[in-house]
Amino acid sequence: MSDAPDRHAWSRPEPEQVAPGVLRVPLPLPMDALRAVNVYVLAEPGRLTLVDGGWTLTTAREVLEGALASSGAAISDVGRFLVTHMHRDHYTQAVALRRETGAEVLLGAGERDSLELMATRPAPMGAQLAGLRVAGAGALADEIAGTIPAPTPEEMADYALPDRWLDDGERVAVGDRTLTALETPGHTRGHLVFEADGTGDAEPLLFAGDHVLPHITPSIGFEPDARPGALQRFLTSLARLRERPDRRLLPAHGPVAPSVHARVDALLDHHDARLAEIERHVVTGDVTAAEVARAMTWTRRESKLDDLEGFHKVLAILETDAHLEVLGAQGRLRRVVGEDGVARHAVGS
Questions:
Q1: H or E element, residue 256
Q2: What is the Cα–Cα distance from 190 to 167, expressed in whole angstroms?
Q3: Residues β-bridged to residue 17
Q4: Is residue 1 over pLDDT 90?
Q5: Are 320 and 135 in contact (CB under 8 A)?
């Protein structure tokens, strides 16, 4: 039997007190890669505030109900959701519970365009499929397009607009704590993290959403209204957090960690190494994002692109293209979109 720690122990559906008045509740997800999303329950007089809401799933609601009951509370005590971004595993259950309880839902103002675009019922993953074609992966785009189910009206209802948009720097009082919303675009354009100042002996915290994760690097720009520049926005946002005082890291996926700065340093180093690696592949003759991605390895298992499941192939190719875009902006590569709509790259500005 191995003595190695279980790196997925954090995802067990067991609430954890991570700070005075702060309960971490891992809610299950229907995917092996992420396993769970952490929802943080903050107690304040007369109500509860939750950072993120989870995915609208019967099992997720049951786990949340059980966690609240263990501390003498109920779903009806939830008065407010502070949501880090509009992805399904963070936003939809908050909206569903709002219909039942009247709880207020707050979301970053930068998510408005994506939510409003969803209301027009565009083709699922339309921006990502277009990005694959630019990356030279048109055949994969065609293959994936035929497998994506259109969302049902019930699912679309859980993407209704929030009660209030939060702006960068806005402060929200939660009991004795003050949470400051900071725009950290990259994973999505309107992603927020929430800084919580320490009270008394309590240490300062960062509710980091998917911006800073302890075990994995977040996908970049995966949103309905995806636009160029997502990776550069992400790197700039990481640098912004690095310049601020260090805090305890409370991520959306993974265990609580002692230092935001330590993980930000690791993420910046990772992307620096990826940029250098991708540049080397272009030098040796791989000119499209799909070709470069196929020459690289992925995940902790160092899998080849063709060994990945379809959705993860999409993420890998789009991530590669995002790095190529940054290299072009830095003048390290030349990026030219041909008449066929495919971006190709060469050394030099």
A1: none
A2: 9
A3: 23
A4: no
A5: yes
Give the CA distances from residue 296 to residues 16, 140, 311, in Å, rounded to whole numbers and listed in that order.
Answer: 38, 17, 17
Residue 221, Ramachandran bin (φ over 0: left; ψ between -120 and 50: alpha; else beta): left
Distance CA 231, CA 121 (A): 26
124 vs 327, more confident: 327
Amino acid letter for position 281: H
Please give the single-letter amino acid code of residue 114.
S
Q: Please write down the HEC assignment for all residues of 35-46.
A: CEEEEEEEEECC
- Report in angstroms the alpha-carbon separations of 96 from 101, 160, 186, 259, 279: 9, 9, 26, 33, 45
How far is it between the farthest Cα atoms of the chain? Answer: 63
The answer to whether 176 and 75 have CB atoms below 8 angstroms apart is no
| Per-residue exposure over 294-316, b if at least 16 CB sit within 10 Å of its own CB, e if not | bbbebeeeeeebeebeeebbbbb
Distances (CA, A) of 8 to 4, 39, 89, 156, 215: 12, 16, 18, 31, 10
The answer, yes or no, to whether residue 302 has pLDDT greater than 90, is: no
Q: Which residue has the tokens 């390290």?
A: 332
**pTM recorded for the entire structure:** 0.95
* Whether the predicted pLDDT of 201 surpasses 60: no
Q: Where are the alpha helices (DSSP H) in 80-147?
A: 88-101, 112-118, 126-134, 138-145
Nearest residue to 287 (alpha-carbon basis) of 322, 321, 329: 321
Length of the chain in residues, anyone?
A: 349
Q: CA-CA distance, 321 to 333, in Å (whole number)?
A: 12
Which is nearest to 112 in space by CA: 170, 40, 37, 167? 167
Nearest-CA neighbor of 40 among 28, 49, 32? 49
Determine the Cα–Cα distance for residues 239 and 223; give it in Å rounded to an integer.
Answer: 22
